[in-house]
Amino acid sequence: MQQKRPMIFGSIPKLPAQYAGWIMPLFLSGLMSGTISLINMLMNLGFVDGIFSKWLSIWMFSWAIAYPTVLIFLPLVRRITGLIVDIPHPNAPK
Fold first, then answer.
1. Which is more confident, 49 or 91?
2. What is the pLDDT of residue 29?
3. I need a labelling partner for 63 at 20 to 30 A (CA). Which of 13, 26, 73, 91 fits?
4. What is the CB-side half-sphere exposure of residue 9 using CA atoms within 13 A?
5. Residue 71 CA neighbour count, 13 Å, CB half
6. What are 36-73's pLDDT values in tens digits?
């Protein structure tokens, strides 16, 4: 009997686990760049006409910079974190 693949919704299947290293930074960079660009825009311009379209434009540009930046710095951040945090190896005896 064939095992049914898990679905995101409808008939769209979930991606294999090997893609998590690309998908998690994509969502993280999107949420962070969106939040920061909105706060910066509100602090500098306040509530102006067309705020949503202006913010969306700024956000998409910010995200285009943020995602590759996260991918570049993530290995360095993992190493620095490993120097500060005692992370047990998954195969280490308990």
1. 49
2. 95
3. 13
4. 0
5. 12
6. 999 999 998 888 899 999 999 999 999 999 999 999 99
pLDDT at 89 over 80: no
Q: Are 39 and 33 in contact (CB under 8 A)?
A: no
Helix (H) or strand (E) holding 6: none
- Looking at the chain, the number of H-run helices and the number of E-run strands are 2, 2
Could you report how far apart the first and last alpha carbons of the chain are, in Å? Answer: 37
Whether 2 has a pLDDT exceeding 70, the answer reads no
In the chain, the percentage of residues whose pLDDT exceeds 70 is 95
Q: Which two structure tokens, joined as six digits, stand for 37?
A: 């660009």
- Are 54 and 40 a contacting pair, CB within 8 Å? no
Token look-up 């943020």 returns: 66
Asked if residue 70 lies in contact with residue 28, where contact means CB atoms within 8 angstroms, the answer is yes
Among the listed residues 39, 42, 44, 38, the one whose alpha carbon sits nearest the alpha carbon of residue 58: 38
Would you state the structure tokens that stand for residue 27, as one six-digit string?
């969502």
